[in-house]
Amino acid sequence: MYSVVILANGLFPSTEKPLELLSQADKVVCCDGAAAKLLMWGREPDLIVGDMDSLSDSLKKRYSNIIKKCDGQEDNDLSKAFRSCLDYHPSSIHILGATGIREDHTLANVSLLAEYTELLKDIDCTVDIMTDSGVFYSGFESMQSYECKEGAEVSIFAFDNTLKMTCEGLKYQTDHVIFDSLWKASLNMAKSSKFVLKLNHPAKVIVFICND
After folding, report:
1. Which of 84, 105, 107 is closest to 28 using CA atoms?
2. Would you state the torsion angle of the CA atoms of residues 4, 8, 14, 19, taken in this order, to the nearest 10 degrees?
3. Continuous segment of H or E residues that includes residue 74
């Protein structure tokens, strides 16, 4: 198992689970200015990716040998870092620091998780976004299974009004939900340590599972 953490330049993690991922990762890829936050925490980056607009001149000089400058504006630094970390052939990618500080960045980064999951469909690798309060996962298959603790709070997000979804293992059924707005299947609860979503067709779905 080879684990890569992408550290985005949002809110630096402060709780046990994401910090444990950060300390145990085989490689840490930083989005631009996130490298300074990682250094303050006590670990050095393995790769720094982005347009370098938020990295100090001193750090640019110090880490010039591991900087991958990408100036294109067709995607953001997180996507640039995601593509770069695939060169490590990881078995898991955990994205930290993707939320907080800027709400527009939060929405953009979480929505990108669905794109990343689809890109990995033919690769033996998983990707998620971990925050201080929980984990975002994504799937696009007609049947999706997720593990959690019994009683965990669960929210499901999709933006496809043709989507019909049934569920097993959740307190509230989803078969009546019309997915024309992001809030429609939020604030559910797991009845056991696993729940299953069954879709009438493949669709991009994002699932948030709260920590204990």
Report:
1. 84
2. 10
3. none
Residue 11 sits in the same domain as residue 72: yes
The side-by-side arrangement of strands in the sheet containing 194-199 is: 143-147, 194-199, 165-168
Q: pLDDT tens-digit profile of 100-137?
A: 989 998 999 999 999 999 999 889 999 999 999 999 99
pLDDT digits (tens, 9 = 90+) for 2-29: 999 999 999 999 999 999 999 999 999 9
Letter for the amino acid at 38? L
Give CA separation, 110 vs 94, 181, 193, in Å. 13, 15, 24
Helix (H, G, I), strand (E, B) or coil at 72: coil
Question: Quick one: pLDDT band at residue 72, thresholds 50, 70, 90?
Answer: low
> Are the C-beta atoms of residues 35 and 59 closer than 8 Å to each other?
yes
118 and 35 part of one domain: yes
Name the maximum alpha-carbon separation found in the chain: 57
Total tally of structural domains belonging to the chain? 2
What pTM value is reported for the model?
0.94
